[in-house]
Amino acid sequence: MDIDTWWGLVERARDTAGDRADDRDAPDDPLPGALTDVLAALEPGRIAEFAVTAVEVSRSAYRWPLWNAAHLIEGGCGDDGFTDFRDGLALLGRETFTRVVADPDALAGLPVVIRMARGERGWIGYESLRAVVNAAHRRRTGETASLDAAVEEALSEREQPAGESWDAEDDEANRGRLPRLAALFLD
Fold this sequence. Notes:
187 residues
């Protein structure tokens, strides 16, 4: 699936979710269901293509600066947490995703991050885009084994995060590399 089609599907679901599309913390979050509905309208092969492209989108954000930004925002962020963070970041839409991957400190301008810095409810992460894809595929076919096989075949190698790494526990390094986020979470 080409990237424009992939982002178009995400945007269609975001449009359905409306003004509640940017925060995964709400117990009645409408975006996962909206995306499941959008994907379930596709042929099973296209759902698998969406899943593969989702992994590629997530991999494009597998970068140390972004990981350290997630660590700062969430008060810690392991490997699974960073996967959730990147999946949730993709659900914020192409423009936000692209801007934040290029400049993780831009997260400081997102309303959900500002709320989180104040100790209010909010979360960028999403437990797994894969769960949405599985639900859509199951709705179309009654199973997920063929989806799992197609995605596994298409994705064979694991990557390391790109970009410069630094100690996410080093407040001074965070202040130097993520000054706006550090101002929200460290000062």
